[in-house]
Amino acid sequence: MTNPTGHEIAEALGLLLRRSTRAGLHAQLTEGLGEAVDELTYPVLSGLARTGPCSAADLGREVGLDRTTVTRRADRLEEAGLLRREADPGDRRATLLVLTDAGQGVVRTTRERLAARIEDSLASWPAADARAFARLLRVFVDEGPFHA
Amino acid sequence: MTNPTGHEIAEALGLLLRRSTRAGLHAQLTEGLGEAVDELTYPVLSGLARTGPCSAADLGREVGLDRTTVTRRADRLEEAGLLRREADPGDRRATLLVLTDAGQGVVRTTRERLAARIEDSLASWPAADARAFARLLRVFVDEGPFHA
DNA sequence: TATTGTTATACTCTATAACTATA
DNA sequence: TATAGTTATAGAGTATAACAATA
């Protein structure tokens, strides 16, 4: 490998994906939002925000979880008032999981906190660098080494 | 937020940190390296490669794990021949965890696979973009929204 | 017959506490 | 007294299999 770029990015990516990094970030973003929101339940909440009202089986396929796992995590989120269950009018076997207003608020808050933190850390960057980074990161994530 | 850059990066980062993304990448990088190497044991192996010979307690502090957890995971790696235990000549309470040649080989292989995958996905990029991305990602990871 | 949500079972992993040995 | 490694116990979470209801 004459080109060191791959190893440079690999090292940075390794740091980024490290468990302690993710756990710390998650703790910051969900602070004060209730103990029902943790690293296990948040993906369900966030996935539901992307898909809209959705069955447990479909949501499981979306976020890569078994439907029994979705059921259990949804139980906790329902108890906390962050989602509710509704009958699916189109399929009487299914139960739709639907975010409540409180659930939507949690998702919106975490997303805004993350965006704000990123803005803060980019504040000292030249504007052109920040724009370039956003563009390149997007391409990297969409076409990067995660699709094969 | 008049500036959309924060939200753009937040969205890309969310995709990157998603469990399914990480699990898929990990499966690719460790394919064929033996079943002792999984998402639980690899951080121990990789951390040990960074620190060099190290006690379980120190390694736990390095990678954010309880020392009992390090002990259990090290047991599996030792059974697989990827690390060995040695008496610490400087502290007779401690046992040093040391990567074997096989263990070093596993770490080297996964790192080279990741770098190669990244190189592949950057092959179609203008060289200046690739260099800029490597530089900006490094700064972002070092100074980014993960340190507060 | 296949798929829905849910529950029961067995299994894995972890955190806490305990133990012995050494600093 | 504090810290080393390890082990036992208890708790949380998951995957597998099962169930009744519906497609």
TrEMBL record, chains A, B:
GO molecular function ontology, one term from the record: DNA-binding transcription factor activity
Pfam families attached to this UniProt entry: MarR_2 (PF12802)
Alphabetic keyword roster: DNA-binding, Transcription, Transcription regulation
SUPFAM superfamilies registered for this protein in UniProt: Winged helix' DNA-binding domain
Record field: transmembrane: none
SMART domains: HTH_MARR (SM00347)
Gene3D superfamilies xref list: Winged helix-like DNA-binding domain superfamily/Winged helix DNA-binding domain (1.10.10.10)
Record protein name field: MarR family transcriptional regulator
Species name: Kitasatospora aureofaciens
